[in-house]
Predict the structure of Phosphopantothenoylcysteine decarboxylase.
Amino acid sequence: MESYPGAASLVERKFHVLVGVTGSVAALKLPFLVSKLLDIPGLEVTVVTTERAKHFYNPQDIPVTLYSDSDEWEMWKHRSDPVLHIDLRRWADLMLVAPLDANTLGKVASGICDNLLTCVIRAWDRSKPLLFCPAMNTVMWEHPLTAQQVDQLKAFGYVEIPCVDKKLVCGDQGLGAMAEVETIVDKVKEVLSQHSGVQQS
Ligand SMILES: CC(C)(CO)[C@@H](O)C(=O)NCCC(=O)N/C=C\S
């Protein structure tokens, strides 16, 4: 490859998927979700976790870069240092928040950004797709706040991958279970095909 200006732009870089994970018990599916995303050719995956989500998975089961709040503060000590949540919003072509727990849903709907994940979302470039997978106990899902907040996120242009009706880990039966990983991956593929369509045009 000649080293003329713009040469790099001619090389098909990978499609960058940023996975956000929050503190629903559905976060136990993160290793499976990441591995199925990595099966999609041309994808590069990075994960941003909240502190509460860490309770549900083992970081050794996540074979990609995994950022959490301390990374932001380790990285920024002086004015010239990179700002991680801004670097991540630039790096990502698509964001997938799976699971989106009730706490982070509320924060995103009202613009609270008190951790790395909510800062990336608050800074998100809304011309890029942001998919979210709500997951919470049925009685939380049925609280009137939830529909208001989900509608607010859809009004921002974010795409809901709806929760499903299941027997939940606490024994309750009903809506609130995160969409199946296969459903989530199919949705990412669908958006990806639209995106690559744009690239071909
Ligand atoms: C964990 C999994 C994926 C097992 O199939 C499913 O139950 C689920 O998505 N639960 C999320 C709902 C939740 O956070 N419940 C919290 C209290 S009941």
